[in-house]
Amino acid sequence: MLAGSVGNLTDALAAVVAADPECPLSFPSEGRDISVRELATASGAATVALAGLGVEGGDRIGVLSRNSPDFLIALFAAVGVGAAACPLPLPTSARDLSGYASRLTGIIAAAGISRILVDDRLGGMASRLAEVLAPVELIPVGSLTAAVGAGGPPRPHHAEPGELAVVQFTSGSTAAPKGVRLTHRNILAGTAAIAEGLDIRPGEDHGGLWLPMFHDMGLFGTLAGMFAGIPMTAWSPGAFVRDPARWLRGFAALGGTMSPAPSFGYEALVESVPSEEVSQLDLSRWRVALNGAEPIRMAGIEGFLEHFAPAGFTPAAMLPVYGMAEATLAVTFPPLGRAPTALWVDRDRLAADGVAVEVPRDDRRARGLPALGQPVRGVRIRVVDEHGNEVADRAIGDIEIAGDPVTSGYLTAPSASPAPAPDVDGWLSTGDLGFQHAGELYVTGRRKEMIIVRGVNVYPEDAESVIRDAPGLHRGRCVAFADVAADGAECITVVGESALEDPADRARLAADLRAAVSGALSLPDVAVRLVGPDDLPRTSSGKFQRLAARELTREAAHLDA
């Protein structure tokens, strides 16, 4: 990593500029490119301007931007003056501006934000937000960089490694936002671990991504590539969602070698590129396809590998990984050059007994769990029971992490419940359940999403996998969660997207889904609700929000009552 020996983000950028000043950062969806030298110049001018506005070390500054140069300029300007940058989510719909403003208000309160740096091209939306976010000041990034070269050298501020640099709000943050505190040390250690784990090669590699840069995978994926000295290209999330095939053609055309995405992104590519067109693509240079940010389905991996083999995509390029914002993204990587592998286990024993028992993959109870590798440099993991004691190989427990890239805690609104923090030994609970086997990590689900019906544990993924291929279900989209039936009994509810309009067809589909889940999991109490295509709530990274879906169905049931 070119910037691996420096102590703060400003110096890291300077090291990249010294090594290759014209290394490009491209934003095709915006039609804008910027070199690292131009980024350093523009962010330096913005640093001077922020200092002139009275911004001081320890302040927290919001960053509201699409994937564009303005995002990076704002981030480096904030840390350059000694403040902490707080990337803010963008609205999912122009129609939801009032609800979006309410969510932003929660984040602003949690972080103590008094100023927000805004992408110049969000002017119209920013004007409407300014009315409801007052007295928070919204500052266009362009107004800070207009006097490039006229403001003199940036105000000197040499951030210490332990100073707060970024507050990364987790993708599930809603009514009670939770901001991950990340220091300069955390970020540099995390991005260095990514560069080492992926063997990023200046002069050979070109990174590309479409995830929003306010999301941890988008932000730290971009910074890891940039600090390692390779060109980075960032499309907008909307460009990918509207036409995944076009994104893939663009990535292939620029000779992209590495890109991260959630599992659903790879499945969307399979759906969008017809089999007869695959051979027209050249994906032979794509050597690292990181797959993370949500539970990974082996069926999805295998479907992608089979579909794009004629384009020259090699199985060893697919990298199922485990990470989170709390670790500055990367926690475990499998070894490079190995095709994805899985452990096929008895799903009933997994849920009921908390142990991974191998079964043949064609067993009706088999659940395939991808091997997620070993900890990246600087990260330690352990799996513990409810008393904090490490469990045996293949025993299910809580996954905990520690190390230089791992946060020291969270920022929350004063009225919110205290967020968990690392214990006295530095171990932080991830909230995920899993086990270790042969030195590798396997993740089985989120503890808070575990379904318990009449004393029986059920992983939501098990219910969802049973019905994902059901005819009538829109693109296999469904979620399962614990709920309470009308008579007060515990039950499992499945919500599926469907484009069916005829009431009889919808009733038939609901009955089929209910019978499939009930039969496969031996559960008598299964409720099914159908919603329209794209109605299931998602996080900023695109993964489905089971608990948010539960609240929506409860609200709908209340309105129907």
* Percent of residues in helices: 25-40%
Q: Which structural class best describes the helix and strand composition?
A: alpha/beta
Largest sheet: 4 strands, mixed
Which radius of gyration do the C-alpha atoms yield? 23 Å
CA-based shape: globular
Mean pLDDT: 89
Distance between the termini: 59 Å
Q: Give me the side-by-side strand order of the main sheet.
A: 2-1-10-9
The CATH H-level homologous superfamily of the domain at 40-198: ANL, N-terminal domain
Q: Can you count the helices? A: 17
How many beta-strand elements? Answer: 28
Strand content bin: 15-25%
CATH architectural designation of the domain at 40-198: 3-Layer(aba) Sandwich
Question: Could you name the CATH topology of the domain at 40-198?
Answer: Rossmann fold
Written account of the structure:
With 561 residues, this protein is an alpha/beta fold. Among the domains are: 40-198, 3-Layer(aba) Sandwich (Rossmann fold); 451-560, ANL, C-terminal domain (GMP Synthetase, Chain A, domain 3, 2-Layer Sandwich). Helices cover 34% and strands 24% of the residues. The protein contains 17 helices and 28 strands. The protein has a four-stranded mixed sheet with strand order 2-1-10-9. It has a four-stranded parallel sheet with strand order 4-3-5-6, sandwiched between helices. Helix 2 (36-52) crosses helix 3 (69-80), helix 7 crosses helix 8 (216-228) and helix 11 (263-272) runs parallel beside helix 13 (298-308). The protein is globular and about 65 Å long. The termini are far apart. The mean pLDDT is 89.
